[in-house]
Amino acid sequence: MIVRSPVPYILILAISGLLAFMPFFASGFQMAFAIGCLNYAVLATAWGLFSGPTRYVSLASVVFFGIGSYTVAVLGEVLPWPVILLISALIGGGVALIVGLATLRLAGIYFVIFTFGLSEMVRQLVTWYEVNVTRSIGRYIFLDITQPQIFWQLLGLLAVVLIGAVALQRSRLGFALRVIGGDETMARHFGLNPTFAKLGLFTASSAIMALAGAIMAPRWTYIDPAIAFNATLSFQVVIMALLGGMHRIYGPLLGAVLMSFLFEALGSQFPQAFSLLLGLVFIVIVYLLPNGIIGRIEELFALKRAVPQSTREGERT
Amino acid sequence: MTGTIMRVNGIRKAFGGLVAVDDVSFDLMPGEIMGLIGPNGSGKTTTMNLISGAFALDRGTIELHGEPISGLPANKVAHKGVARTFQLLRLIEEMTVLENAVVGMAFQPGRSWNAAMIARSREYLEVVGLADKAGVEVSKLTYIDQKRLELARALAMEPKVLLLDEWLAGLNATELLSGIEVIRKIRDLGTAIIMVEHVMSAIHSLCDRCVVMNAGAKIAEGTPAAVLTDPHVVEAYLGEPHHA
Description:
The complex is a heterodimer.
Chain A: H1 7-19, H2 28-54, H3 61-75, H4 81-103, H5 108-134, E1 139-140, H6 147-170, H7 172-182, H8 184-189, H9 194-216, E2 222-223, H10 225-228, H11 232-244, H12 250-269, H13 274-288, H14 292-305
Antiparallel strand pairs in A: 1-2
Helix pairs in contact in A: 1-6, 2-6, 2-9, 2-11, 2-12, 3-4, 3-9, 4-9, 6-7, 6-9, 11-12, 11-14
Chain B: E1 6-15, E2 18-28, E3 33-37, H1 44-52, E4 59-64, E5 67-68, H2 74-80, E6 82-84, H3 97-106, H4 115-128, H5 143-155, E7 161-165, H6 173-188, E8 192-196, H7 200-206, E9 209-214, E10 217-222, H8 224-229, H9 231-238
Parallel strand pairs in B: 3-8, 3-9, 6-7, 7-8
Antiparallel strand pairs in B: 1-2, 1-4, 4-5, 9-10
């Protein structure tokens, strides 16, 4: 239970270190694909960070992603880049804190509905503000940030998030989250405050999503509320995490990489039927891989190792 | 009275129009096993839930070592040193036996997250006789072993007061004997115990004192032998003589 091996940290650093050389030989198309893939990987991993242990399904990913993008659109030419990143993370985390305080006492299904409603509400609010106050629905982002720079930032963010996730899993808080995910009522009776733990994690996960949104913003040059707060993104993130397996740190990452290839293939081969095929993929995942690919692999290994247990089922009264 | 470890004073809890616990008071002495008995629906489990902070009280106070714990949420009550088991087992199935035991110790004040804490939690698996199954996943355990684990987890809190909610229910004759031994061992380690129980043989052999409840109210208190022959108690369990 107490693990101190540095191997996962070294692996994460080594692999991201190697990937960092990619911009020196990759084509523009490959870079664009890699950036999209990294963005999904960050979002899905951040999503899994909160939803994996707590089993709360959030459909609000795009809220925080969009907040990050809008922070850049508004402040992009006013403040230095690191400050903008910091502010976007703070706003994303702050909104998550308020939303979390109001909703994390809600049970499963109500939380899902609320987070979905939230993304619609935020989109409408921003639209209303732009129409009535700034009197212009879209914004332009002209920042001197190159494609490789976006790539490196996302790669760095992903590495930090993964290292944080491993550290969290090994910590007492990580254990607490597993207990809370297992049985919240019981957890209270053993000294845990589930609301506090869930709130902290939701805030951290949302701040990461806002950072991803901010880092991605310069790629767009133009954003409006419909682009920045497109609810499809929230669903894509959930599908990715489910495909890989949301109960393991690397599950959402695996799902994000596979899905990015699938999106690319579907988008280029069947641009008209993209949404339809995506829906089919979602159904297939839920039916055939309820615990994701990693869950299925673990089941196969468990079957191999299974030895007859001396259970005494018959004596149950 | 000085020397009481827990004092329950005039507690009341109503759910809508149903008064589940009505003006119940009792004291718990250090190192004592107190039985909380009564017919089904008499408010025993609700009383346990009030003590452990699962529900808020309508009225009354509960003190632990003279310090009020009523009004605190369940996690704070746990920090003060009140542990409980659940009538319907609440273990985490996908965790191992040891991990479940660690749940009891890990979140108590002053505990560090290290190997020593894990080792100390493991000692409580020994107390209940589960040490050799530490690495087994809970879903693979038998019913009696799951009950033992439920107890080990509560013990790992190293509580001042332990609340056992029908911990002996559903055990066969042999298991019951070993269950009674385990409870006696815990008392000898110095933990005061309140046990809700229907198994009369266990009440007779374990309890120093019993509080009997009926329809939410306390109707008798004394040694098991005395209260179980009390006419009010007999009537509560079996009905009035002329109706019988």
